[in-house]
Write a structure and sequence with these properties.
This protein is mainly alpha-helical and about 300 residues long. Helix content is about 75%, strand content about 0%.
């Protein structure tokens, strides 16, 4: 019995080797993998250059090799002290979190209403909201500036948050409506038959199922608000109220720029964005691929 089992195992191993030999080389998959690796390297190159520039001497930024000849972290100290980095980092964090919260609340409620409720002129209102996305943001600076001034919100972080929420909510509402439409109507109808109110259905049933959509909206809005420059630099004149990006732009000189200090400040400023994406990447990927496969 032992000899028979040994022969069987040897035959199985030989058969497996023959299968591996007969299996064709995955040319198509290898080509796609090579292309994706090239795109990934091309995408991550600016980040690597940013970090390397922040730790190299200023006189070797454009004249030296790709790898710095000597490493120094003094640029991070200069960037922290010269820009009052802690204060403006806190301003950016507060403005971004408040904006993300406001956009998520308005976009999720509006997206649920447009996806699952019936009310007069629903399509007309939806098209009007989407039409605001076609207007370039730079063309709205002057009217928005005058409107904030008439409301007494000019040169305040509250006015900037209102501006961010109102300008970003339509696009996020469009995304949330698309996610809510993927949920079966029978689920909502069954909850209504059981006597649940609309807000209860939204909060306890629909919203937990839309976590991929919420993650997508949060990441997009966090990135857009954190890196926004034009509105913040226009609305806020008080230096202590400014978020981080306009302050970092002040490191760019008219005739000369301390590139290691600028790159050090930028490197520190991207840490929250990376952390948020790493924290929510699974839900974000699920949200981006939702609807790719029909159930």
């Amino acid at each position: 019995m032992t000899a028979v089992a040994t022969r069987d195992e040897s035959a199985a191993r030989l058969g497996a080797k023959d299968d591996r030999r007969r299996r064709p080389f995955p040319v198509g998959r290898s080509f796609v993998t090579f292309i994706l690796l090239a795109i990934a390297a091309f995408t991550i190159f600016p980040l690597i250059w940013l970090v390397l520039t922040s730790i190299r001497p200023a006189n070797t930024v454009f004249s030296g090799g790709f790898w710095p000849s000597s490493v120094s972290f003094s640029a991070y100290v200069r960037a922290w002290n010269s820009t009052d980095f802690g204060l403006h980092f806190a301003n950016s964090l507060w403005i971004t979190l408040a904006t993300v919260l406001g956009v998520v609340i308005f976009a999720s409620l509006a997206g649920y209403a447009f996806a699952k409720l019936r009310f007069p002129f629903k399509n007309v209102v939806y098209v009007l909201l989407l039409a605001t996305l076609m207007m370039p943001s730079t063309s709205l600076i002057i009217p928005l500036y005058l409107q904030l001034k008439s409301f007494g919100l000019l040169n305040t972080q509250a006015g900037l948050i209102v501006l961010y929420v109102s300008s970003s909510a339509p696009f996020s509402m469009f995304l949330m409506r698309a996610f809510f439409e993927t949920l079966p109507d029978e689920l909502v109808q069954a909850a209504r038959i059981d006597g649940a109110g609309e807000f209860q259905i939204f909060w306890r049933i629909v919203l937990p199922l839309a976590r991929p959509g919420l993650a997508t909206v949060i990441i997009f809005q966090f990135l857009a608000t954190w890196n926004e420059f034009i509105y913040a630099n226009t609305v806020l004149q008080n230096t202590n109220e400014l978020p981080l990006q306009p302050v970092l732009f002040g490191l760019v000189g008219q005739y000369q720029t301390d590139w290691p200090t600028l790159c050090a400040g930028l490197a520190m400023s991207i840490v929250p964005v990376v952390l948020v994406y790493v924290w929510m990447q699974r839900q974000f990927v699920a949200g981006m691929t939702l609807g790719a496969v029909k159930s």
